[in-house]
Amino acid sequence: MLLKLPKIRFKSSTLVVFWLFIIGISMAFVHKRQSERICQKVSIKIANEHNNYFIEDRDVVALMTQNGKENLINNIHEFIDLKKLESRVSSHGFVERVVVSKDLKGNVYVKVRQYQPLVRLALPNGQGRYVSSGGKILPLSERFTARVLVFDGNFNSILAQKDWKKDSLRTPYLEFVKKVQKDEFLSTLFASASLNWRGHITIYPQIGKQVIEFGKPENIDMKLAAVNAFYKKIIPAKGWNKYHRVNLEFENQMICE
User: pTM for the whole thing?
Assistant: First the structure.
């Protein structure tokens, strides 16, 4: 028995080497086959869950191919750099996230998520900016206009200088817009607002002649509750023409004139 053990071990190790050789040959063959495959299709999916259409399939293709200077279709699988393609698509101002992948056949798949604008800042000379749900400053688009609350006034020049996320000056305005958006009644009622040089908000509702002087975005929940109460309780009792001004600037007060 002792004399046969070396022979058995030798056969076992030989078998292992043989199978490793077969596996290595197979992997090399598969790699060669994959490297020879070409891209025959580019599939693009753009998430429009917020009904925003700032970017289209043709824009994505133009970004990935540098306006047609480089080809994806008929390009060899091995030569398609996914990270480079993602970087190019991400350069678009309204792209929040992009994932580019390819299958074993070499076909390319692109998934794009757009930023969600919450408010539009009107600036001098017809310029402007959007602010996203995450507080990011976005450019305007010649192709599509989002139906969001519009801010005008002198204070916009300050608000548009940097992103609103984690900024003590700008974050309260983002909170104000988000709370308005979550309220089904107020999001329909409020169309535009003006911000004076001190940052005080004056709201111009879409119905009625009332002007709502909201003041600074402080005690937001309480003030919005007061606006709801004005339209749902006071207006039905007093009529639409009774008041033309609602002032909420002072703490724990609503002045109707």
Answer: 0.78
